[in-house]
Amino acid sequence: VERRALGVVEAERARRAPGQGEADVDQAARELRFRLDRTVPVVGFDPVVNAEVFHYLSRVGADQTPPALFLGEWLLGRLAELEDDEGSPLYPNPVCLGFVLSRALADPAAPVRDPLRHSLLARVLRQQRSDGGFGSPLSTAMGASTLLALGHRGAELEAARLAVLRGRGANDAWGYEDFVVHGFGAPAWSTAL
Question: What does pTM read for this prediction?
């Protein structure tokens, strides 16, 4: 039923004149696609989500508990397994994991902090491109933020900073980019980073 409804939305878009109610039709299509995509279960642990849990456990003083220690070791294993250009089921942008995990590692209480920091720094430096960026403006801002959170102050950070500045649009803001799998993001998010 929902797939047929999505077909109706697409037919309505094709029927309308350009500019006539496109925003409403586009919004309806996004909502239907989101509902369709949500029916597919996400299997397994998402490393980005678990990096947030890891950060939370450190912040509330549960950093040396068995769950936090297990999660730290699990994240270390995922960093070793993931390809540098591989994202996660919910956060397909490969730079997201570094961005989220680096915030957790900025907390001195984070378990297995030094091995995670070393592994993550190596990954983010491999992800950086020759122009200093990490892909799109949002990816570059997240990559630069990751370097900062990890305490890296080398030439790579300066190159990332310059790449972030080059990503500004004509209105001195950065463009929209999806942050999570269902297309959520905002120009304000890119600009704020």
Answer: 0.73
